Amino acid sequence: MHVAIRTLAFALALATPLAAGAAPPAHLLDVDDGAVTLTAPDGARARFDIAFCVLYRADEPAPKLLPADSLRTRYNVVTWPAAVAADAEVAQTRRDASEVGDGFDSAILQGDASGRTADAFAAAPRDCVKADHAQRLASGGYRWRFPKRPGFTLSAELLPGKDGPPTLRYTLDAKRAGYYSVAYMGAPAHAPEQTQAIFQPLVWTEKRFPDRSYLTLAFQATLPSTLVEHNGQVEGVVVDAGEFPFEPLPVFTNSRFGIALRNPTGQAQPMVFAPVLGGAGSRLKAGERFAFSLRPYVHRGSLTVGYEHAARTLYGFHDYRRNALSSLNRTLERIVDYGMSHWSQFREDDKGSSYETDAPGTVKNVSSLNPLDLALVTDDAAIWRHRVAPYIEYMVSREKYLFTIDETQKIQHPSYTLEGPAAPVSELAALHRIFNGASPAFLALAKQEYAGSRTRNLDVHERGDTWQNSLALYRASGEQRYLDAAVRGADAYLAARIAQPAREFAGVHGEEPFFWTQFVPDFPSLLELHEATGDSRYLQAAHRAAREFTQYVWFAPAIPAGNVRVNPDGMAPHYGYLAGKGHPPMPAAPEDAPAWRLSEIGLTPESSGTASGHRAIFMANWAPWLLRIAHATQDDFLHDVARSAVIGRYTNFPGYHINTARTTIYEKPDYPLHDPKSLSVNSFHFNHVWPMASMLLDYLVTDAWARSDGAITFPSEFIEGYAYLQNRAYGGRSGRFFAHDDAVLWMPAQLIQADNVELNYVSARSGDGSRLYVALMNESDAPVSSEVRIDVARVPGLANGKVRATDLHGLSSAPTFNEGVATLQVPARGLVAFTVEGAGIRPGLQATVMSASAKDAWRTPMTRITDPAARGMVLDYGPSMRSAFVFLENGKRDYTQVALRWSTGKDSGVLVDKGFPWEFSVPLPDDARRFTWSIEGTRPDGTIQKSAKSVLAR
């Protein structure tokens, strides 16, 4: 039987709008007794058999998560007791010291693997059937009949699709009690080597083909589908959005389906299993029924093109968020205030952020550039004194990001010594540039690190002479040899990582991926190199990598209309990891919140190794990079993903992740203002506070750049940090604001306040302070009229009388500020900009740092002695901001106290440190020409060891 019918495709799937009254394009269906051939509106065509395998067990299948034993990445997979003992293939894995803390579940990592299988087809005997007769329905669809089976009756219907491809709905009637799973087995199958790309969330991407038939459960399905790119089109199956409820929050125990890609013969064949054997809905009594719907899918283009199309048309993804709660500026200001408060757990004596959440007794920092760019842009000397200066000293002295003096602490591989720098080459190079070469020690340390190698985070070994580091040293030194090395290295990287898709879970140099940015090519660095060289190849590579990255971003469950009731019992969700550490539940008022505000769509899990417990993390440091690449390549998908990650999610530091259940508690401004033991909804990694602030500042600046089509742009430095914490740092150099090329990014706290929360802003001052430049950005899809207030204490030129704005962009008439207040209209998702003349701005910290100069640099900025091992260096940040920093590399057990004897020729002194780490900071007058230092250590027996003198000279 052959019949051709048409089904309507959802209009939103179109690349161009339809004419009024026109019908959307149709999917063509060619139906026979055992299959349907689907032709998409774009011409892509594939045959889908109406074929299923039914898995059945009478006993409890007891599914549980265990670490995958054969992948070169850490990832938990669902396992079952093998139906046949010989099929048990999961090996017991050994947990290491880095797999401790938030996100690492001991029940999973130390679970018993004996007798278990991760192969879905080895979990139970299967009975495979294919339809043998098709019947046309009055509705326009089709029903298929299957051969009779003793244990069940199966039927399937093909229903016309109102939003794209047709819906294939199957029904199982159980004839005997037990546990069932039905696998759809009719999608096209190909030899893996004949595919161009594959997708099975979370880790099987590019051409990393599964080594067995792993099942990805619903709660780990970023897009509930498996896809194959083959001969210029994408083929797959997508779970119907109606089968994936928004509530409750998807977790292991409520996952109703699974998806797989490797079939029993080892071919790449998209499959859906529903229910999951042993999971929700799988236990049926005789006579009970289970029904499920999926979408056969085919689309012309690459896998990422098909992925985007499916996300948009079948799960409704779009640019869906707005500020709603707070402007992003006000949120950023609250996070900075939080970072300066005692709540943020910065230990000033230790110069680091508490890392108690994961490793008791430790501190950890990410990058000194995080607080530094906030201090410069907000022109805040307190941030400098209490965060930036200690951060820099920590990063140049400590051996690793994670530090403790407790040598019994082994969790996540901390360091116990000051054999630094922990700062990577790029950070040291950036510090050299930010301070205009006034502190040559930074460049000297950068070149030292470039010539060697180091383990900075966890147990990850890093080479110094990478192409990324070559680019950093070129920027800092101006030496062409480093740029040449960067280009050579990047070209080899393109050949190894871009020209051919990844087939293994290993980087170019064999490194194991863990965070999602490590699963794809290094798009931040590729974009940086593109901007340094102008070579479009690097932009194209960054674009491809960024699109591949979106496969780790949530696009499901689809967001329902209306509100969702959260905190129904007056308590916030209680995160199991923290409950296990004794953290009590937190009260939270019941609330009806719009579902879109609660959605994880646009965020990612943390990593492959912690995705089982971290549904979605708020640290979306990748978002500004996607926004930049989106504008440079005119890619709306990347733009919409970037906005979805950041906009309208929180009003203060929200903690780390969404987990357990949906709630609004982390939206609240006072949420983080509690003792750590009182926080129990999600984990707090206090070293993330300043990186999140940098992320939001980077997003604001990038958004203004993109909306102004590059007319608003500011110089930046690359923040490498570690893991996925890459962003750009700003402040301290002049950029461009439309026609003005003297614009210095300048955004002191509450400089500009708008009555409407949908307005974000970016502001800058002219080099001489006579002008204030302002850009307002509307985050809603409706025009906004809002009163805008500029702080006259910061901009005294507005304090008296009326001032009319000039140099208008996007404004039909010039706003007049009356004592700093005016009403402005900003178009939907638009940008308006203006200039205030006669501003009278008097910058503080920012101006001081900008006046740092290489002409003041010391000719001997750093020295080292060996007995005891100690280093001294001059840190020059600008006038009245110079110091000598001296520290011992170790010696914890060698001394009970250490004294520093120092002299500048005019002044001298002795500083005594009575506890390890042994370190000293000595302020230097601007006219100091010499700093002589020596160490005296008091041994446990009371004797004193005196070092030779060392001289730092100008």
From TrEMBL:
Signal peptide location: 1-22
User: Mind telling me which SUPFAM superfamilies this protein's record contains?
Assistant: Six-hairpin glycosidases
The GO annotation for biological process reads: carbohydrate metabolic process
User: Which keywords label this protein?
Assistant: Signal
Q: What is this protein called?
A: Uncharacterized protein
